[in-house]
Design a protein that fits this description.
326 residues, Ribosomal Protein S5, domain 2, Alpha-Beta Plaits, 4-stranded antiparallel β-sheet, 8 helices, 37% helix, binds ligand DP6
């Protein structure tokens, strides 16, 4: 009997961002990155390898996936088959609790959960470091979603040395994020293609790689010191530098909408009124506000001038991957 394995992985938001690869096959990043795993957004995926299947069958939130998205998952399953010696096709059932393709990094929790479920279902018993390395081959940000709390992905220089590890878990101090979920629009360009264009065409790219090193060092210190102001300030600057790369690419692109700028302005205004809050943005219009739990009510009330209450989702630090065999 083929066994079914289910894995649950949470998404993460980068505080020092990954934005560019130095090896697209091995998915090695240009620089290391640091993130916070969140409790509210996660993916649960079940995988069964079965000899009677004639192709991989991939179901996503109750629907068969488009050929393009299925191809990326099948390629990942090929890698798992190669590593394990498993020859059968797989049935994959995914429930995603992340707004997809809106800059809330659904590929992070998605490929982390897939790596956990597929590797175990194929007969591999990977430790968390090797699981992180495997998840990396699906999507860079998934490397970090194997772990809970604050996580660092070491860029490394080859397949063996590029993996994530915990910086702090559990998170024993008061830091949360409010996701401002904006109207879903078609992404101008995927994160994979966007970062590739930036590496190739932005004249500022070498400066990004250089400053990332300093940001990583300062961020590690700020997390160790449990210093919300420092964490927030470094994250905000780092995010804006990433988006400045996009504006300086050829052709230029950006992920902002008018609502994105409204949310950024609201956070800046709150801060000038003395509320300790900072924003970060990924490859989509949504804004994530870094703040203390004690301030979430004040911030939500202020933002409700512009947004509906259901657009404001409070998330706390979340756990690492869990894998169960049914
Ligand atoms: C802006 O992990 O989605 O969220 O590796 O090509 O799948 P691929 O890209 P992806 O990029 C995430 C970029 C980011 C920053 C980050 O999470 O570090």
């Amino acid at each position: 009997m083929a066994k079914t394995v289910t894995a649950k992985a949470h998404t993460n938001i980068a505080l020092v961002k990954y934005w560019g690869k130095k090896d697209a096959d091995l998915m090695l990043p240009q620089n290391g990155s640091i993130s916070l795993t969140l409790d509210h957004f996660y993916t649960q995926t079940s995988v069964t390898f079965a000899t009677q299947l004639t192709a991989d069958e991939i179901e996503f939130n109750g629907q068969r996936l488009t050929a393009q998205k299925a191809a990326r998952i099948s390629q990942f399953l090929d890698l798992v088959r190669q590593q394990s010696g498993q020859t059968a096709y797989a049935k994959v059932v995914t429930e995603n609790h992340v707004p997809t393709s809106a800059g809330l990094a659904s590929s992070a929790s998605g490929f982390a959960a897939l790596a956990g479920a597929a590797s175990r279902a194929a007969g591999l018993q990977l430790d968390l470091t090797d699981l992180s390395r495997l998840a990396r081959r699906g999507s860079g940000s998934a490397t970090r979603s194997i772990f809970g709390g604050f996580v660092e992905w070491h860029a490394g220089h080859d397949d063996a040395s590029s993996y994530a590890e915990v910086l702090q878990d559990p998170v024993d101090w008061d830091i949360q994020m409010i996701a401002v979920v904006l109207k879903a629009t078609q992404k101008p360009i995927s994160s994979t293609a966007g970062m590739a264009r930036v590496v190739q065409t932005s004249p500022y790219y070498p400066a990004w790689v250089q400053t990332a090193e300093a940001d990583l060092k300062r961020m590690r210190q700020a997390i160790a010191a449990r210093d919300l102001q420092q964490v927030g300030q470094i994250a905000e600057t780092n995010a804006m530098r990433m988006h400045a790369l996009n504006l300086s690419a050829e052709p230029a692109f950006n992920y902002f909408t008018a609502e994105t700028l409204t949310a950024i302005q609201a956070v800046t205004d709150l801060r000038s009124q003395g509320v300790n809050c900072y924003y970060t943005l990924d490859a989509g219009p949504n804004v994530k506000i870094i703040c203390a739990g004690q301030d979430t009510d004040v911030i939500k009330t202020a933002l409700q001038q512009y947004f509906e209450p259901e657009q404001l989702i409070v998330a706390k630090p979340g756990p690492g991957i869990t894998i169960t065999e049914n």
